[in-house]
Design goal:
Order of helices and strands: HHHEEEHHEHEEHEHEHHHEHHEHHEHH
Largest sheet: 6 strands, parallel
CATH architecture of the largest domain: Alpha-Beta Barrel
Structural class: alpha/beta
Number of domains: 2
Shape: globular
Helix content: 40-55%
Strand content: 5-15%
CATH class of the largest domain: Alpha Beta
CATH topology of the largest domain: TIM Barrel
Number of strands: 11
CATH superfamily of the largest domain: Metal-dependent hydrolases
Length: 399
């Protein structure tokens, strides 16, 4: 940056656009208005050191129309952590914010540097990525549903732009309106027009307009599933929405991770026992980043419970339990040697390998070693399906 009266200099720190106005005002000797976002970087230009918060993008605020900006969700930095929500009301759990902060040293950890992200993954042996929202999950239950859909639209447009810029290396999971059939059709059509190939459905669907908790398997939801089935897009579910049911003073992050799979089993059960898949036989569902060892356990339990309680059912299943898995579902894993030992029950065609870059539990840094273990366990042909072929088929990607 060049400033009259100061020698030209390059500042290596990553800074934010929101800091430009305070910097210019400071250099011009003007007083900074109270409440102005950002802060002056003039000390850096003069050679001084100053601690800087991580840079972030106010994607939603920037893309909301001017008359709605005050209602837009905000992204800010406070007390050493990212916040997402409305000013004064953070929607992110504290543990979640702390986890996100660990990845700031990786240039490609966030999607605001897609080129660095692609390079870091390539160096780790990964050519293509399906990326899921992280902090945006905090907005799944944004109270105003009309604004929630607007937030999802902005997110989808952002992901589509990254996908286009990536030249086939990055694919984004979009977000849809799941609480209203007309909204489901509208957002699914938008999603497809943007070139996104799948979308994330929440494990916890929240409440309807009357304050009742939404039941995915209910008659009221059938019209939404009709729209999803008609779209032809596969549904995805992702771990991360199931908090511990009781307080946890110590190591709460890991305790939360240990029970993440609970939500999968509940929704898995509804797809089968509530008749969703009987009524909507073209649905395809992917379970992501919860491993695959849970699948034989869930199938076994479902078979036992079917045999034990079907005389009490108010919906009789049209197929055996294994049929629903083999026909409709797939799951991804990062490191799951037990799951691979049970691959014959799960099905080699129903499994995806994933990296989960850049999270702590990811294979980033040893992905090639992880991939080699898959080859060793299932053989080269089946490994090619697990690490590439199956997910391409799921998403409808050629090449």
């Amino acid at each position: 940056m060049r400033v009259p009266g100061l020698a030209a200099r390059v500042v290596p720190e990553q800074v934010r656009l929101v800091d430009v106005l305070p910097t210019v005002l400071d250099l011009a000797g003007a007083r900074l208005p109270a409440g102005l976002d950002g802060r002056s970087l003039a000390p850096l230009l003069r050679g001084a050191q100053m601690p800087l918060p991580p840079a972030y993008s106010e994607t939603f605020y920037e893309r909301f129309p001017d008359d709605l900006k005050e209602q837009a969700p905000r992204i800010w930095y406070e007390d050493g952590a990212y916040m997402v929500g409305r000013k004064g009301q953070n929607f992110l759990p504290g543990d979640f914010s702390r986890v996100l902060m660990q990845y700031d040293d990786l240039a490609g950890a966030a999607t605001n540097n897609i080129e660095a992200r692609i390079q870091e993954l390539a160096e780790d042996g990964v050519d293509k990525e399906l990326a899921f929202p992280n902090a945006v999950l905090a907005l799944f239950h944004y109270p105003d549903k009309e604004l929630r859909e607007r937030v999802f639209r902005i997110y989808n447009e952002y992901m589509a732009d990254l996908q286009e810029r990536s030249n086939g290396h990055f694919y984004g999971a979009g977000l849809i309106n799941w609480w209203d059939p007309k909204g489901a059709r509208r957002t699914l059509e938008e999603l497809k027009s943007l070139g996104l190939r799948t979308f994330l459905m929440p494990i916890n669907p929240g409440k309807d307009d009357d304050g009742n908790v939404i039941d995915y398997g209910s008659t009221a939801m059938s019209a939404v599933w009709d729209e999803i089935e008609e779209s032809g897009l596969p549904v995805t579910h992702h771990i991360g929405e199931t908090p511990p049911k009781t307080p946890c003073e110590f190591n709460s992050v890991v305790v939360g991770m240990m029970i993440n799979i609970d939500g999968f089993r509940e929704v898995f059960s509804k797809y089968i026992f509530s008749g969703i898949l009987d009524r909507h036989p073209k649905l395809r569902i992917g379970w992501f980043e919860g491993g695959i060892a849970w699948v034989p356990w869930a199938l076994q339990d479902a078979e036992h419970l079917l045999a034990s309680y079907q005389h009490m059912f108010n919906h009789q299943l049209e197929h055996d339990i294994q049929y629903y898995w083999d026909t409709h579902m797939s799951a991804s894993f990062m490191v799951d040697p037990l799951g691979l030992q049970l691959i014959d029950r799960i099905g080699v065609d129903r499994v995806f390998w994933s990296s989960d870059y850049p999270h702590n539990e990811s294979t980033f840094g040893y992905s090639e070693k992880s991939l080699a273990s898959v080859v060793e366990t299932v053989g080269p042909g089946n490994a090619a399906k697990i690490v590439s072929g199956n997910i391409k088929k799921f998403l409808g990607i050629d090449g």
